[in-house]
Amino acid sequence: MAGDDPQGLDLLNQVEEEAVNDPDMFVFTNLAGVGSMEVNVFQRGCDVVIQKSLREGFGLVVSEALWKEKAVVAGRAGGIPMQFPQGFEQYLIETVEECAEQVVHLLSRPRERAAFGRAGRERVRQEFLIPRLIRDELRLIKEVLGSTQRGD
């Protein structure tokens, strides 16, 4: 549960009420002891990660999943689209129906899923890890020092 989600607790209560009547539905939350290690295990053990956000900041779950070479079907919200590798934007969805269609599509195509995962990991490696940030900082310092040495 995100601390900044005012509707989250109400939605969780609705989901838990439904889960009582469905023996195949399991609800795990950080309120019941699910932490980073468990989330890591879930992400590594799945075939497709779903992040069906309507509103989002960066959406770190997407980068975490892509780094683990998992295909992601996600809402076109906040910073999520910027994380998607080129050529896989069709998995940015708007509706629940689109989400279901794309998940089924990926589950039935392991090669495409694997290619998506590899491309996603490379996107995260190139754009969102510390080495890239350090390169940007060093490039900026070099530009600033270069302009001061020229008298600019």
How would the global form be characterised? Answer: globular
Largest sheet, spatial ordering of strands = 1-2-3
> Can you tell me the CATH architecture of the largest domain?
3-Layer(aba) Sandwich
The share of residues in extended strands comes to: 5-15%
Low-confidence runs: none
- Sheet/helix structural class: mainly alpha
* CATH topology description of the largest domain: Rossmann fold
- Per DSSP, the total helix count is 7
> How would you sum up the major sheet?
3 strands, parallel
Overall pLDDT metric: 90
According to DSSP, the number of beta strands is 3
Highest-level CATH class of the largest domain: Alpha Beta
Helix share bin = 55-70%
Description of the structure:
The protein has about 150 residues and is mainly alpha-helical. The protein folds into 2 domains: about 1-35, no CATH class; about 45-150, Glycogen Phosphorylase B (Rossmann fold, 3-Layer(aba) Sandwich), CATH 3.40.50. Helix content is about 55%, strand content about 5%. It has 7 helices and 3 strands. The chain has helices at about 10-20, 35-45, 60-65, 80-85, 95-105, 110-125, 130-150, and strands at about 50, 70-75, 90-95. Strands 1-2-3 form a 3-stranded parallel beta sheet, sandwiched between helices. The longest helix is centred in the C-terminal third of the chain and has 20 residues, at about 130-150. It is globular, with a radius of gyration of 19 Å. The relative contact order is 0.10. The model has no long low-confidence stretch (mean pLDDT about 90).
